[in-house]
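Study the following:
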Amino acid sequence: MTDSIKAIEKIVLTSDDDEKQIRSAYAMAGLIGKYQKLIETTDLVERIEKLEQNYESIKQSK
């Protein structure tokens, strides 16, 4: 993903083509959105795993 961001940044900062800059900005926004979803999903998985561990501990202690 880092290479993609660097390539997009280069286009946005150096291109004289407004259309290309706009498409690059949209591509960057798309990457950011996907990264955010990945972080959210990872966080949810960790939280679910902790809940499952807590549930198993409570179940075994009874």
About this structure: The chain has two helices and no strands. Residues 2-61 form one domain. The chain has a mean pLDDT of 92.
